[in-house]
Amino acid sequence: MWRLNKVRHKAGRQGDSLEELRLKRREHEKALRQARRDRQLVSKRLLLTEDEEQSEVTMDTTSGEQDVVSLFHKLQHSGPEREAHLKALSKALRDPSAQLTFIKQENSMHLLVGLLTGSDAQCRLQAVQCLHKLSHSPHTNVAPACLPATPYLLTYLSGQSTKFTELCLYTLGNLCPDSDAVKEKLLAQGIIPALASCIENQRYNLAVVEAVGFTLSQLLQAKDAAEKIIPMVLASSLPSSLLSVLTPDPKFGLAPAIECAWCLHYLACSSEYSRELLAHGALLQCSSLLLSLGGAVAEGNREEGLELLVCPLLRCVGNLLSICPVDSLSSQVGDVRLVVSLCALLQTYIHTQPALARETAWVLNNLTAHSSAVCSALLTLSLVPGLIQLLPFSQGINTMVLRVLANIAHKKKEFCVQLARLGLLSTLCATLKMADQEMVTLSLEVLFVLLVSRPQADNIPCS
Amino acid sequence: MYCGFSEEYMKSSGNTEEQEPRHGELPFSFTPQCVHLHRDHELFEDGDIHRHMYLQDLYTSEVDDKPTLSVSEFACHISGCSAVFSALEEYEHHYNSLHRHVCCSCRRSLPSARLLDIHIQEWHDSLFTILAQRQDMYQCLVEGCGQKFRTSKHRKDHLIRIHKYPPDFRFDKTKKDKGIRETKRLQQKDTNMEVVDDVCESEGVCEVMCGVLSDQPEQGESMETHVSEEEAACMAKPAATEEHAGLSAAVHGNECSSTETLKPRYSYRVPSTVCFGHGSIRGFRGRRGRRK
């Protein structure tokens, strides 16, 4: 995956010790968690060229700002050096304070837009690079300053130049979350239809697909997305396009599928509209993809970043199951051996990523809640012992797994007998003694059903 | 089995495929349910963070050193006992030591079923008291010995002389010791002790056999189990209030400074007429010995 490779490369180069790196990451993670709690979790992406990657960003702020001002002045004169000046400007604009300085220059945006739309193709490319750097700014007042460029960026989405289109897309994606005014303007200027036709026309260009996915995910994460954005997206051709590129390409990697899966997750979360996703066959597609991914994981495939795709797929399946009518469950889920994959994912992630294991258990709950066929499959395919072994683990995992077992027990007497034979009763003796009240309650519920289903009053093998 | 759970744990009914009709009086109301999670649900937090770390070029496949998976704790569910354990074995040891052989009448915990039986007989059985006036009723505490004695003093002498027991064996306190402590305790006017007062006084001459905390010889009637040091260390939640149950007072006794007198405390949340069967804090044993 190109992005992952670049991270490692960069980290090694800057000579940070492993411990420093870990510390930085932990700090960053803490900040992200707080941002999520404040409902302000926003990320931007910066696309860099090969040589931009190589060069160091070590210039001090003041010289950067001066560069920006002088470059701006130079750019006001046409000539063959314009492209070089733009390149230098693009490099200078990586610095946040230089970004502020630039937008404060009178007519700076006007100039940039002129170059963006001019007749010189190379200048266009460099101009969009500059805009892209500006869009990545941490300062929220930079985005509104970029508004004059957006109608052109949108127009260029239907163009054919891959790199150019990519830059336009990531620039737009970065601008979306910064202010409501920007978002309103973009919606009015037709960003959704533009994205829809872009992904349709360029579906074999996976770099562009990834960029569309990212931009769309930025829109869908808006606080009020459910009111306007989601209905508009569902009404367009975007859902089917997203679904069609969901299967990862082995050569290109997981990145485009990851972006599209996250878009589907944000769409599936909205309970009012997600029924339309069902109509598009989203549940079927996501579950069959999960089935194959889980199978790959079970066979030992530890492809990097796989969980970045598995996570949104799990969430789609989980939430779509909760709104799926019970009688169409079998047609929507397809192969019931999905449970094999889910259990494999559970076992794989239980120690490395317990939160993901918990989400997997949640999906199993939703699968088993109203389907005898699924419950039967869990028993026939010998998956229950593995589930029982997960009952010691806390942080919500054991409660969810116990719910799954409770779902199985509530279906048929025969299932109860089988569960008892697999040793569930003696495990309940332990779970009944747990500190977690929900575990104790659920244990009693399961115990009750198991006892009621016993053919005669047998001895219970525990205290 | 006693089940008293508050309403919040009852699930609302959904569409189910239960094979049993709903039992109206029983509190078992679990129904299989789908759970829908909205975008900002806390269950999604870790995954979202992971996603954004990736977007910001901070993804790493290596697992961080922080231990993320934890194992459920176990907790003693006996009314009033708030002990918590990290392993099932610890819990079972706690339960077997403190809650198993408990006298229904006076809530003393004895180390074995046999000693419990003897205690109940000698403390709470009026028939025993009557018979003891005429025949040798006090059994030797050593299993297999079989000898019986007219008074507890005779038995104690026997234990010391023949079986080499220490003179201050914890499970064979004389009536005199108990009496002194009883008066001391009564003077403290602890209203929480009404149950035991009642029972002990009404039995007349009887001997106390109970576990006493090793470090608290004359601190007032302990009435509780003997608690090993390691167990005391395990108890996570100190009792803050008076109403905290009796058995855990043993622990706090251990942790308290020796200047504090150990006051037995009881929780009366469960009606005193309810018994929970053999081995629980109020076993069915010894009912005959209860107050008249």
Automatic annotation (TrEMBL), chain A:
Annotated SMART domains: ARM
Name of the molecule in the record: Transmembrane and coiled-coil domain-containing protein 6 isoform X3
The keyword Membrane is annotated on this UniProt entry: yes
UniProt entry keywords in alphabetical sequence: Coiled coil, Membrane, Transmembrane
Record's keyword annotation contains tRNA processing: no
Coiled-coil annotated spans: 18-45
Organism: Lates calcarifer
TrEMBL record, chain B:
InterPro entries for this protein: ZNF511 (IPR039258), Znf_C2H2_sf (IPR036236), Znf_C2H2_type (IPR013087)
Top-rank taxon, per record: Eukaryota
Coiled coil: none
Ranges of residues in domain C2H2-type: 76-99, 140-163
Protein's name in the database: Zinc finger protein 511
Source species: Lates calcarifer
